[in-house]
Structures are given as C-alpha cells and as structure tokens.
Specification:
By secondary structure, chain A is mostly helical. Chain A has eleven helices and two strands, in the order ααααββααααααα. Chain B is mainly alpha-helical. Chain B contains 14 helices and no strands. Classes of the chains: A mainly alpha, B mainly alpha.
Chain lengths: 286, 311
C-alpha cells in the first residue's frame, strides 16, 4: 500500500513539474511558432541556480524565486538578441535554440561540474505527513500544490486579463492581432520571459526531487515534447492533463518495468498521433 | 568534365593512405562515415524539406543491431550486416509513419522525441545494450579474405561504400522520383493537386534516408568495434544537421564537405579542450544567424559586403 501511495505522489509531483515545463513551451510555441529546444536547458539552469542560492543559506523558496526571475530574464535576452533576428524563419529559430541548448548545457557543466548536486527541501517539508497509517512525503504534495496554483494563475492570466486576451488573439491569428494594434514585439518578449520563467521555476522546485545534474535537460525535454504533442498546442487544459498522464506513465513505468519505461512512454504518443495527430485537446480542432 | 573531376577526386582520395600516416587514414575513414550519414540526412533536410532532429537513431540502431546480433546471438558478419540494415529500415518505416503525421515544426519535434526515446532505451535496457558500458569486443569483417582490421583496408572499404552510397543517392535525386520529391518540398499543394501522393513520396524519402544512415551505422560500428548509447544523442543528430546546413542543404557535394569540416573541427578541438558541445552550439548559432544558405554562399555574401563597404 505504502509503495503505491509513494509512487502516486511521485507521479503527481512529476506531472506538476512537467506542467510547469511544458506549459511554458506550449505558450511560446502557440504564440510565436517557436519550438524552443532550449527549454530543457532552462529547466536545468533553474535547478542549478536554486542549488547555488539555497546552499548559500537563503532557503529553497527564495532560491526558486531567484531562479524563476533569472531564467525569465535570460529568456527575454535570448528572444531579443537571437530569435528576433530570425523572425519568419521557423527552422532557423529552432536550430538557434538547439545551438543555444548545447551552449547552455556545456556552460552548466563548466560552472557546476559533472557531479549531481542534491538540493535540500525546505525544513518544514522534510517530515512526511502521517495519515491513515500511511506516510505522505510532504514536499511532493507541495510541488503538486504549486503546480495547481500555477495552472490556475495561468488560466486566469490567459482567460481573464487584458494581456491574456492579446495572447489569445495572437495565438489565433497573429496578422490580425497586429492589424488591430496589439504590440506584438512586447508581447513576444513578455511571453518568452513567462515561458522561460516557468521552466526555471519547474527546475528549481524539481531540484529536491530530481537533483541538479548534467543531462537533466536531455531527460526532461523529450518528456515536455511528448506532453505538448499529446496535449495539443494552445490548450492549457490539454497540457495540464497530459502532464499528469505522462507523469503517471513514466513513474509507474520506471517502477514496474525499469528497462522499458521509455517504450511505455512511446505508446500513448503513437496512439494519439495515429488517431488524433493534432493532440488530445487541441483548440483548432473544435 | 564533371565525371572527370569526380574521377580525379576519387583517385586522389584513394591515394591518401600511400602518403599519409595511420592517424590521417583513420581520420579519413571517420570523415567518410560522417559523409554518408550527412548525405542521408540531406535527403530529408535538403531534398524533402523535412528537418529531422533524430537522425542519429538510425545510425545508432543499425550499429546496436549489428553489435547485439554478433555479440549476444553469436551470428557472423554475413548475417548481421544485412539483418542490421533491414531491421533499421523497418524501424525507419514505423518512425517515418509516426513523424510524418505532422510537417514542419511538428515533424521536427516528433523526430526529436522519438530519437530521445531510443536513446533513453539504449541507456536503460541494460540486459540488451549493456547500458552505459556499451557493447565492446566487436570485430571487423573480412570480405573476400581482405582483413578490414588494417586501417588502410578499412579506409578503402569505406571509400568504396561512400562512393556507392553517394552515387545511389545522386541517382535517386535525379530520377523522376527525385523530381517529385523536390516538388513536394517546394510546392506541396500543387503536387497534391497534380495527383501526386505527397505523403507517400515523403515517407519513401524518410525510409531511404534511414537505410543510408544504417549503412553509416554499420561502418561506424566496424570502425570503432564498440558502441555506446551516446551515439544516439541529440549531439550526433545535430552534428549531421550542422554538416548538411553548413555545407549547403539540397546539394550533393555540400553535406560531404560539411561532414569533412565538422569531423576535422571536432578532432582538432577535442585534442585541445573538452568543450566540443559548446563549440558545436556556437557554430550552430553563427551558421544559422549569419550563413543560413551554407558556408560557401555565406562567405561569398560576407566578402561581397566587405567589398561594397570598401568601394
């Protein structure tokens, strides 16, 4: 029983982390048509920054805040300095983000070395929660809670605010949005910062669960890609649900058939692509 | 005239082992393998207009199939080589069917996701792949009694294989099928309206590309006599993509030159510093931003700009 509880919570927390990572990716992709392959590296940078700040004695929560802001800032700089020069050249933009992901990953290796850096969860979350004779790891519940708060925040932002309305307009028809006077340039930078910041936040909060290690980017990016492929672009709800689907499949796959966890991941993707290639919850389909 | 210069080039290349030392001969073999690999990716990127970020899967799968069949099943080279090519091509058929459900960025993301799954599998499925230890203790074949364990012999073998592969691919590109493939790249709606099966044409290109990548994979595993999961990493796919784009996508010779540049750069840089990934990323950025049409047109444009600046 206990093992199932733990695995379920692991799945839920991984799903939450994947949501933070994939929602940023989907937001950028939906609005700007950029498949940001640096996203995995941004997640990793978030984890490393959180490791450094929390080891300096500021606690994980402050570290997560710092990581979010720094990674968001980095995303904004990348958008302004590199991606903007390539606007209209979708392939060039993807390749630029790919090149950038190598540079970022190798820089992390240079700065933080090759050994995994463990990150401590905040002290209040270190004791497991005991209920019904079972122990629930508190930190995973906390990550899940943050993911839900982020999801609600994003939902409100996109559906209820003026900024969100401009984002929705841009996703649906960029040319029209420009024509009615939406400042596309500022919007792009804002959304890129937001998406990058979400990846940084995910990395920082994922630190105590996953550790910060070289290769974290390559481990997380495909999961995020599969989430986006599964959930469909431009659908926050789709990203949310498919994050948890992948979280469950991956965690239980690793626990039950460690050798083949990756193949199991492959199956839902194939099924969805075969029957509904635009994704489970794609907006353009409705 | 063109035939003559190609013949001259081949004779020069074949003469390399007579003048150069073993280090350069082995470097030459690696360049030839990379050249086949880049040329196979060029079929997709250059001629089909489909940017794949997962091409290393096919090189790696072919190498792993070969290594697994010979080390764990104890089969001889006469069986493992065709079996590896066949199995890899079958995987290419399935992956192509999946990835081509989308085009453009969707295709790119799917190929990347698929290749990362295969890469993860190679690391985790320890009972088959030996995981991070890789499969070692492999041998090179001896076709017609010629021992390919000798560097020079292997180089000539690789040169013949490369020549054959490139000729076959060039033949394919200049065939009616090749024309229709370029048609789907440039005007897929019109091709579709003309009654061409655009999806089928692209799928065939994908399968052919995975076959030639499998040939490169076989040569790769023969050369190194060892295989490690890192051969399927994004870095390897990106190196091939860089070769194609730097050399000039959609030309026959471009990717071959690109492969030469990338392998030489990698070997020289690795001799001095360990920052190959960093350099690869930076070169990628520079090429994409400043020389999107490849190095030669890029340098021409830069020189032109300089000259105009002077006058």
């Amino acid at each position: 029983m206990q093992i199932w509880v733990i695995q379920t919570l692991n799945s839920l927390s991984l799903g939450g982390l994947l949501f933070m990572l994939a929602s940023g990716f989907a937001l950028i992709f939906g609005l700007m048509r950029i498949a940001n392959l640096t996203h995995g590296a941004l997640f990793m940078v978030g984890a490393y920054l959180a490791a450094t700040v929390s080891r300096a004695g500021y606690g994980l929560l402050l570290a997560a805040l710092a990581a979010t802001l720094l990674v968001a800032l980095f995303g904004g700089v990348v958008e302004r300095l590199i991606l903007r020069r390539l606007s209209g050249n979708a392939q060039g933009q993807v390749l630029a983000t790919l090149g950038l992901s190598f540079v970022a990953a190798d820089s992390c290796l240079m700065v933080w070395g090759g050994d995994p850096i463990p990150i401590e969860a905040p002290r209040i979350f270190q004791m497991p929660l005991r209920m019904f004779g079972l122990a629930f790891p508190t930190y995973r519940l906390f990550v899940l809670a943050v993911a839900i708060v982020v999801a609600i925040g994003l939902y409100v932002l996109i559906e209820r605010t003026r900024l969100g309305a401009t984002i929705r307009a841009g996703v649906d028809d960029m040319q029209m949005a420009r024509a009615v006077g939406i400042p596309a340039s500022r919007l792009f930078t804002t959304v890129f910062c937001l998406g990058a910041g979400l990846a940084g936040l995910g990395g920082a909060l994922g630190g105590p669960i996953l550790n910060a290690y070289p290769g974290l980017d390559a481990d997380m990016l495909p999961l995020a890609l599969i989430v986006v492929i599964l959930g469909g672009v431009g659908s926050l709800v789709g990203t949310f649900i498919s994050s948890f689907i992948i979280g469950f499949i991956y965690t239980f796959g690793i626990a039950l058939v460690p050798d083949l966890a990756y193949v199991i991941l492959f199956l839902p993707m194939v099924v969805v692509i075969a029957f509904k290639p635009e994704g489970l919850f794609s907006r353009s389909a409705t | 005239m063109q035939r003559f210069s190609i013949g001259l080039l081949l004779i020069t290349l074949a003469g390399l082992p007579l003048v150069a030392g073993e280090y350069f001969v082995n470097l030459g073999s690696q360049i030839l393998i990379a050249a086949i690999f880049a040329a196979s990716l060029n079929l997709l990127v250059g001629f089909a207009g489909l940017t794949s970020l997962g091409h290393a899967s096919y090189l790696g799968l072919s190498a792993y199939f070969c290594a697994w069949l010979s080390s764990k099943m104890g089969l001889g080279h006469a069986v493992t080589a065709p079996a590896a090519l066949l199995l890899t091509t079958v995987v290419g058929m399935v992956f192509g069917w999946i990835a081509l459900r989308a085009t453009g960025l969707g295709f790119l993301m799917l190929t990347l996701a698929l290749s990362q799954i295969v890469w993860g599998l190679a690391y985790r499925w320890v009972s088959v792949t030996n995981g991070d230890n890789g499969i070692s203790g492999l041998s090179r074949p001896s076709p017609f009694g010629i021992d390919l364990g000798v560097s020079n012999h292997f180089y000539w073998f690789a040169l013949i294989a490369t020549t054959l592969c490139v000729l076959l691919m060039a033949r394919l590109i200049h065939s009616p099928y090749g024309a229709s493939l370029r048609g789907t790249r440039d005007q897929h709606r019109r091709m579709s309206a003309l009654g061409f099966n655009v999806w089928g044409i692209r799928w065939v290109a994908f399968v052919v590309a995975s076959f030639f990548a499998a040939v490169a994979g076989l040569l790769y595993v023969y050369f190194h006599k060892y295989i490690h999961p890192s051969v399927m990493s994004v870095t390897v796919s990106a190196e091939a993509l860089l070769s194609v784009i730097a050399g000039g996508a959609g030309t026959i010779m471009g990717p071959l030159l690109g492969a030469l540049l990338v392998v030489v750069l990698k070997n020289y840089v690795s001799a001095f510093i360990e920052r190959w990934n960093m350099l690869l990323g930076i070169v990628f950025l520079v090429i994409v931003i400043f020389m999107p049409a490849g190095i030669k047109p890029g340098i021409d444009a830069l020189l032109g700009r300089l000259r105009r600046g002077q006058s």
